[in-house]
Specification:
Elements: E1 10-19, E2 22-30, E3 38-42, E4 50-52, E5 61-62, H1 65-68, E6 78-79, E7 105-113, E8 119-122, E9 140-143, E10 146-149, E11 154-155, E12 163-164, E13 169-172, E14 178-185, E15 202-205, H2 221-229, E16 263-266, E17 268-273, E18 279-292, E19 306-316
Parallel strand pairs: 1-19, 6-18
Antiparallel strand pairs: 1-2, 2-3, 3-5, 4-7, 7-18, 8-16, 8-19, 9-19, 10-13, 11-12, 14-15, 14-18, 17-18
Length: 323
């Protein structure tokens, strides 16, 4: 992985949870590269879907103070991961494990619901329909972009003739190199969650949707890094387990998943009921968000870019039980 002065100075993260038309949302703001000054987390919908940071205190409103200790003194730098769980620094830096909430953003969320359809998916990538100063319903990662003048000739790619010459100026986007992993965890607060860990769900999502500019390409940032440093680093021999799309939903039934591409968690029966005597289902996921250092668009040009991230989750009927 290449070393670059790749920091994000402002990230707004909005988590949007949708269950049967009821919206539950949260937002987290990183005001500087080193810490989060303003945090807030809110939810609506009552028993439709509630969220928690500890799996005990579920509520539709969580105070900002409850998040401060999770995101203290963060400095996002380019790291790499092939599985969305284990992260490393590298390049001209010593190869070493990356530290959660120092080099990349990581947090756990608990879900709780009493609806029957309790398979939760990440859905509706609208990144190509949203600009930095606009918004939309759905999942998106967008950034303001940074105007940058190339100091060296390099191969931008992916075509052989896609070259950038010294002095060329263009806008480059940090959002193009963002990765999001969501890993289902055993819910330690639910004694009935006895599943095998090998059966839990995990996804890595590249919201750019551009497979040709993905992990470990010889052009783009890799080519520029070599032109700038004259220091050759071998491309990775491994691959990144990444999806460039999200689950599709039946156009005739907005609650029917057509595939399990972005299934993130199956909420489990807790053996408890709510005040309406409905079973309570719960689940837990870990969300990691990072700048992928082996992405073709991880240029050091974007060190001062501003990024907005919104994630939309929806409870759907999985395809295997449609009959």
């Amino acid at each position: 992985m290449m070393i670059k002065k790749l920091y994000i100075s402002f990230i707004t993260l909005i988590l949007l949870f949708v269950t049967f038309g009821t919206v539950t949302f949260a937002w987290i703001s990183l005001s500087t590269i080193n810490n989060i000054e303003g945090l807030s987390l809110a939810a609506s919908g009552g028993d439709e879907l509630q969220i928690s940071l500890d799996g005990i205190n579920f509520a539709s409103q969580l105070p900002a103070e409850s998040l401060y200790e999770l995101f203290d003194d963060i400095s996002l730098v380019d790291v790499t991961s092939t599985d969305g769980l284990n992260f490393q620094t590298g390049g001209l830096r010593d190869v070493a494990p990356a530290i959660a909430n120092e080099h990349y953003l990581s947090f756990d969320l608990y879900f709780q619901t009493s609806v029957v359809e309790h398979h939760v998916y990440l859905v509706n990538n609208v990144s190509d329909q949203v600009a930095y100063d606009t918004s939309a319903t759905g999942t998106f990662v967008v950034s303001n972009g940074v105007m940058w003048t190339a100091k060296y000739d390099f191969w931008y790619g992916p075509g052989e003739d896609d070259l950038v010459q010294k002095g060329d100026e263009d806008r480059y986007y940090a959002s193009d190199s963002i990765r999001i992993s969501i890993t289902e965890l055993l819910d330690e607060t639910n004694e009935l969650d006895l599943r095998n860990e090998l059966d839990l769900n995990k996804i890595i999502f590249d919201p750019s949707g551009d497979e040709l500019r993905g992990y470990g390409q010889p052009y783009g940032a890799f080519s520029y890094f070599f032109a700038r440093t004259r220091h050759y680093i071998y491309l990775p021999e491994t691959t990144q387990e990444v999806s460039y799309r999200l689950t599709e939903i039946d156009s005739l039934n907005p609650y029917q998943a057509l595939d399990n591409t972005s299934l993130i968690t199956v909420l489990q029966d807790t053996g408890r009921v709510n005040e309406k005597n409905k079973p309570i289902y719960s689940g837990k996921v870990r969300i990691n968000i990072w700048i992928e250092g082996w992405d073709a668009d991880a240029f050091d040009a974007v060190e001062n870019d501003r990024v907005k991230i919104q994630l939309q989750f929806k409870a759907l009927i999985p395809p295997e039980i449609t009959d």
